Amino acid sequence: MPRILIEETRCKGCGLCTIACPRNLIILSERINNQGYTPAQFANDEKCSGCALCAEMCPDVAIEVYR
């Protein structure tokens, strides 16, 4: 089953991954990370297709996709 990992310390909360995900499985967290940003978080493992569009859009290379 595909899944993604988001490295919260690298994420700046730009939201590009939330736009890129065709299934709307990534959301911006309400909590703040150590750098003062609201990082992205993966919402649902079961519906992920492993398309990797989120990782391709991430300018900080904070997302890894496992298929």
Question: What is the secondary structure topology, with strand pairs?
Answer:
Elements: E1 3-6, H1 16-20, E2 26-28, E3 40-42, H2 53-57, E4 63-66
Antiparallel strand pairs: 1-4, 2-3
Report on this structure.
It contains two helices and four strands. The protein is of the alpha+beta class. It has a single domain, classed as Alpha-Beta Plaits. The longest helix has 5 residues, at 16-20. The radius of gyration is 11 Å and the shape is globular.
Largest pleated sheet: 2 strands, antiparallel
- Which strand order does the major sheet show? 1-4
SS element count, helices: 2
Number of strands: 4
Helix proportion of residues, in percent? 10-25%
Note the gap between the termini: 6 Å
How many structural domains can be distinguished in the coordinates?
A: 1
* Coarse morphology: globular
pLDDT averaged over residues: 94
CATH architecture: 2-Layer Sandwich
Indicate the proportion of strand residues: 15-25%
Note poorly predicted spans.
none
Query: What is the N-to-C order of secondary-structure elements (H for helix, E for strand)?
Result: EHEEHE
| Rg over alpha carbons | 11 Å
CATH class: Alpha Beta
CATH topology: Alpha-Beta Plaits
Q: Give the class from helix and strand content and strand pairing.
A: alpha+beta
